[in-house]
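name: query_chain
kind: protein
chains: 1
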Amino acid sequence: MTALRHFFLLIVAVLLAFADVPAAFAQEADASAGPIRTTGGSVMFVQQGATFEAQIDGKPFDHLNARRIAHFEEPSGARMIVEAFDTGSPELVLYDFTKRPPTVEHMTKRMKLTGVFWQRDEVVLKSADGWYRFQRGMLTKLTSSKMTYH
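structure:
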């Protein structure tokens, strides 16, 4: 009976994995320097030697120590996560363009992202070493969840 129960739970998990959840949006990284349309203006990443200067409408708002970058934008253009690659795993930075100037939040853990899932008040990050939630400036490793992210 327990084998049948485990099989049933597996089927339910697979069905939930393919369910359409309109609040979640996953995307892959974009390595372009811009311009990128956001709710706060046009964002450009200007390379200056071994660093990048993040600019919004031509005005600098952040400086990244990186040889290259990749970024993930929320479909609305309100937020963006940037991976700043120098050596090893990239530094992660969240930009919130609903504020003037944009809010810049550096995450405490370096990791290469394989997916980003935008939620209303959080961002769920997928990496090789697991799933993380970034919410209100706090990065938390997810151990188990009843939420399904697509």
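note: Residues 12-25 have pLDDT under 50 and may be disordered.
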